[in-house]
Amino acid sequence: MTFFEHLAELRKRIINSLYAIGIGAFVGVYIAPKVIKFINEPMLKALREAHFEDKLYYNHPAGALNLVITLGVYIGLVLASPIVLYQLWLFVAPALYKHERSAVTGFLLSTVFLFLAGIAFGYFVTLPYVLKFLVGFQQFGGTVAPLLSINEYFDLILMILLGLGLVFELPILIFFLSLFNIVTPKFLW
Questions:
Q1: Which residue from 8, 25, 86, 173 lies 20 to 30 Å from 31 (Cα-Cα)?
Q2: pTM greater than the 0.85 cutoff
Q3: Contact in structure between 153 and 43 (CB atoms under 8 Å)
Q4: What is the C-alpha to C-alpha distance for residues 162 and 44, in angstroms, rounded to an integer?
């Protein structure tokens, strides 16, 4: 392919990816209220266990709408990510040898699996303990009660879940660092 044919192919792949993200965001905004209920459950449980009112508040007139749209876009990115990765694969695959294609496929599958495992570990294992500690931390003798903003809560959730998703990617990073002899098994041991 010529340079301009490569640019035309890249443009086609980017447009297809943007369509997928747009459709995913539309679906994400539709299902966002159900996802909000699911994500709120660990915090509401932690509030009940600490004997506080189990409610989250928004402190801006458009706070709830902003939350639904933001969460919908995030859900849309997650839903569209297989299509975006496939479009990237269609652009890159013709330049790879057969053995390189199989290595990249294994790499992508293990990366996605590890990232999702990190998010699941964060939600089901880590998050209940973190929230219980943060809500139950009553240093002021019971004279101070939490007034939790749902937007700040979702920022905390995003930070914890994405952080643990990235931490679970460390085996992939170590693998590539060992390929380039930056780290050795002896050093890791």
A1: 86
A2: no
A3: yes
A4: 21
CA atoms of 26 and 32, how far apart (whole Å)? 10
Answer yes or no: is pLDDT of 14 > 80: yes
Question: Is the model more confident about 77 or about 104?
Answer: 77
Query: Which amino acid, 51?
Result: H
SS3 147: coil
d(Cα 87, Cα 189) in Å, to the nearest integer?
Answer: 39
In angstroms, the CA 140 to CA 65 distance is: 34
Tokens of 94: 């013709």
What is the pLDDT at residue 143?
A: 73
Longest pairwise C-alpha distance within the chain = 72
pLDDT at 188 (0 to 100): 80
Instruction: Assign 188 to helix, strand or coil.
Output: helix
Over residues 173-186, mean pLDDT: 82
- Would you list the domain boundaries of the chain? 3-188
Q: How far is Cα 112 from Cα 154, in angstroms, rounded to an integer?
A: 22
Confidence check: pLDDT of 30 > 90: yes
CA 101 to chain centroid, in Å, comes to: 26
User: Please, which residues have CB within 8 angstroms of residue 21's CB and are 6 or more apart in sequence?
Assistant: 76, 77, 80, 84
